[in-house]
From TrEMBL:
One Pfam family in the UniProt entry: TrkH
One GO term describing the cellular component: plasma membrane
InterPro entries per record: Cat_transpt, TrkH
Highest taxon, organism lineage: Bacteria
Name this polypeptide is given: Trk family potassium uptake protein
Gene Ontology MF, one: potassium:chloride symporter activity
Length: 446
């Protein structure tokens, strides 16, 4: 076992680690104590739910409240927390508590897990991640518990506050609101400023990434001292949220939102923009969105959050790098420049690889699902982008997926969490390449 461990790459360790967590969660969810129906959940239902929770997606084939017992819900919540923070971060935290030595290999895997550029200070960063998570989730839980107390009572209100705070911060999108009706998410709180703002802030904070946290904690509000990564993430996140909200307002104010109050329209527009970038909650019926709103949602889901965060998608930095590269080629500028800095070629190559990998997975999955089931292409595309972006929003077809389609969605959710490129690298990164450059020959492009 020790020899196998040494031969595994960092990407392979992360992939195997998530697989173990998912299979453990699947076994626990299959136990009769985990659900309200006789006989326990089927393997595929448990696997789908465990994958969705661990990969912080939120797609469900069964309503979380009506199908899973308290035990099952707690299992799902633990999987969400582990999946959101990354098992290596939690493992290192326990090693610190138990005063165990953290070796160089473990630090390297942790570095890959949180997607940071350097291994130095990685243990200190892990401490900040755990502390920051506890603070943000704790504050969110208190605010939500106070609000839920009025409706559900003290004990249930506290439980609901904790569950939805963790789910929102980890960008998971699981909810317990299905008491009266299944799969309604937060649609009963469309006009509630406290619920909406709290959930949105938790989603945004969890989605900007741990590296940005670290930068802000060091430099406070001194934007000029922020690293280039943090500047790109914060500016892009702001543009996507406000731009997305403005477009949702324009697209839906006279349609799906026409019966809402003015504040309800503003809140719904903002919430739709925030949640589409890998959170998975909804305050308006996603299935009833106009086609332009669905297209906008799919675009935001494909982009996702930021590197080293609880979010999925191709990431904000990938989007910016590709736009800069396109601009440089059109204007014939030497290199991709931003904020007085030039991006290295490896960054551009990786961004291109991430985009292509996600596109190929999306197209391949669409071909498979459209072959085995008769859904509209819009609904299929929406479901696929929701899975690979670890979002959790759906037009309502998740529970109608057959075995083949569910397996495809499970695979996409897994790739979305560990990183589609990382998953691809884990398959073939052990192969040795011969350091010989082939002769150059030009071909025509475009």
């Amino acid at each position: 076992m020790a020899l196998i461990y040494k031969k595994l790459t960092q990407s392979q360790m992360i992939v195997i680690g998530f697989l173990i967590i998912i299979l453990t969660g699947t076994f626990l969810l299959m136990l009769p104590i985990s659900n309200r129906e006789m006989g326990g959940a089927s393997f595929l239902e448990a696997l789908f739910t465990a994958t969705s929770a661990t990969c912080v997606t939120g797609l469900v084939v069964r309503d979380t409240y009506q199908y899973w017992t308290l035990f099952g819900q707690v299992v799902i919540l633990i999987l969400i927390q582990i999946g959101g923070l990354g098992f290596m971060t939690i493992g290192v935290f326990f090693s610190i508590i138990l005063r165990r030595k953290i070796g160089l290999r473990t630090r390297g895997i942790l570095q890959e897990s949180v997607n940071t550029l350097q291994i130095g200070g990685i243990v200190r960063l892990a401490k900040k991640i755990i502390l920051g998570t506890a603070i943000f989730e704790g504050i969110g839980a208190i605010i939500l518990s106070i609000r839920f107390y009025k409706r559900f009572g003290l004990i249930k209100g506290i439980y609901y506050g904790i569950f939805h705070s963790i789910s929102a911060f980890c960008n998971a999108g699981f909810d317990l609101m299905g008491q009266k009706n299944k799969y309604i998410s937060l649609s009963e709180y469309t006009d509630d400023w406290i619920i909406n703002v709290t959930i949105m802030l938790l989603i945004i904070i969890g989605g900007i990434g741990f590296l940005v946290w670290d930068d802000i904690s060091k430099n406070k509000l001194n934007y000029k001292k922020y690293k280039l990564h943090s500047k790109i993430v914060l500016i892009t996140t702001t543009i996507l949220i406000l731009g997305g909200a403005a477009l949702f307002y324009i697209f839906e104010r006279n349609y799906l939102m026409k019966d809402l109050s003015d504040s309800g329209i503003i809140l719904s527009s903002l919430f739709s923009s925030v949640t589409a970038r890998t959170a998975g909650y909804n305050t308006i019926d996603t299935a009833l969105l106009q086609d332009n709103s669905k297209l906008l949602t799919m675009l935001l889901m494909f982009i996702g959050g930021s590197p080293g965060s609880t979010a999925g998608g191709i990431k904000t930095t990938t989007l910016v790098v590709l736009i800069l590269y396109l601009r440089a080629n059109i204007k014939k500028i030497n290199g991709c420049n931003i904020y007085g800095r030039r991006l290295d070629d490896e960054t551009i190559k990786k961004a291109s690889a991430v985009l292509c990998t996600n596109l190929f997975l999306t197209i391949g999955a669409a071909l498979v699902i459209s072959t085995v089931q008769q859904f509209t292409l819009t609904d299929i595309s929406f479901e696929i982008l929701s899975a690979i972006g670890t979002v959790g929003m759906s037009t309502g077809i998740t529970r109608d997926l057959n075995t083949v389609s569910r397996i495809v969605i499970i695979f996409l959710m897994f790739c979305g969490r560990v990183g589609s490129l990382s998953f691809a690298l884990s398959i073939g990164s052990n192969k040795k390449t011969i350091p010989v450059a082939q002769p150059i020959e030009h071909i025509t492009i475009g």
